[in-house]
Amino acid sequence: MKRILSYIWPQTTKVNSDYNGILEVTFINGRKILDSKNANYSFGSLQQILEIGISKIDLKNVDSILLLGLGGGSIVSSLRNKFGFNKKIIAVELDQKVIDIAQKEFFISSSDTLVIKKYDAFNFVKNSNNQYDLIIVDLFIDNQVPKQFYTEEFCNNLSNIITTKGSIIFNLGINQINKDKRNSVINYFYNKKEYKTFQYEKILGTNSLLIANKTTNKKSL
Questions:
Q1: Is residue 26 part of a domain?
Q2: Domain that holds residue 126
Q3: Where exactly are the transmembrane stretches of this chain (predicted)?
Q4: Tell me: the pLDDT tens digits for 68-84?
């Protein structure tokens, strides 16, 4: 009945999160989405944007994925159901309320192949002793990427935990916000000879993605 009613009267539940302000879970047109005040967090346009990035990666060569920013778990769902990736995913999320939403509303919870860690992403990357074949950076407070994730230190730390032929998908955020800081991330990877970099701007009219593939054959943007 709720599913049928969602096509007529969208149903919204508000959650006061630990770090992301008030989040809204809306049941609309037979599906749930997660939004912050000014942005989609999961199972909406954000999911579509990152799916475009993931489609550029040959997942047959990927054994481990580090997802920085769980949200409602839409990217985990995409990896499993759309791209058929059934190997290990480590998802890092600072906000316990967001983890709870992912589990309760979207049925995304830890399993043998999904480990959800409540941890600050900056410190997780800095202190990690493991390497990953694919790192997806999707870190937002509302519609902005926190400034520490645009820094050279963070980019250096990412580089330290990517495998020899690994890839990074970096959601740089909305195109007109923090343009100089976004460019610093782009320039960091472009100027590293071991990376082949690709930039995709205004995907679905909003966000920009950077894909950095570790390779011995560098090509320009």
A1: no
A2: 47-214
A3: none
A4: 999 999 999 999 999 99
